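Let us practice reading a record.
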Amino acid sequence: MRKMLGVKEIEKLLDYVSFDIYSRLLANRHICFPLENGAYLIGFHFCDIRKPEQRDERICIYCGPEDLIFITDNKRCVELMSDIDEKTETYRQLLQFFNAITANDVYELEKFEDRITDLEDSLIKEKKSKSRNSDMIISMRRELLKLKRYYEQLTLITEDLTENANKAFNAELHLRFISLDKRMDYLLNSVLHLREYITQVREAYQAQIDIEQNQIMKIFTVITAIFLPLTLIVGWYGMNLRMPEYDWSFGYPFVIILSVVVCVGCIVIFKWKKWF
């Protein structure tokens, strides 16, 4: 018999498990506890990877040979569970539910990879870095961290199920759960790959910012180098000494021409050296 309950009715699990096990369910973020009667008590937080910005919702499942108690307030999970034939064996219903909540996850992760690729292309094409790119990288990293934690708990649950500690599954069903566990491992590895990818994009973005900053510092350095000789001329003629050039009628124009020649000469040399 299958029962669909809300989170507020979770205390009804005490009719099937001891208070100690019930307390462990409430205390842990995820749990997969085999019971002596061939049943499993499972708890985890569901994340809709199509909308990772939404808050995770708690799901608790008691799956025994005769009874399946499904507890959650998540509408999508309720819909997926409702689509499963209630007359099917309880363990198969559990298997079908986990297959249903991860059915399209591969395609969603591929879309996520396309988003990262588009971001990388935009960073390469743009001549100047923009703050929105940094915000997008931070947002994607947070989403991937959330997905990593989500698949980690699912992987731990499916690993416990494949151990079949209480001999609840027959050989054929056990193989199906092993296949499910491999899928969870694949999804987790895909998320880890995406985290490495976005890290590489972030490092490339940071390198681009460093290049821009170095270019700015290079311009300031060139400007300083051009006007440094003029500073020397100013210091030379600013001394409180009697110089022969003071009595020369062309002394003032000479200093002007000398300053212009020095500036132009520095610019020509820097251009020839390709310093800017």
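A brief commentary: The chain is about 60% helix and 10% strand.
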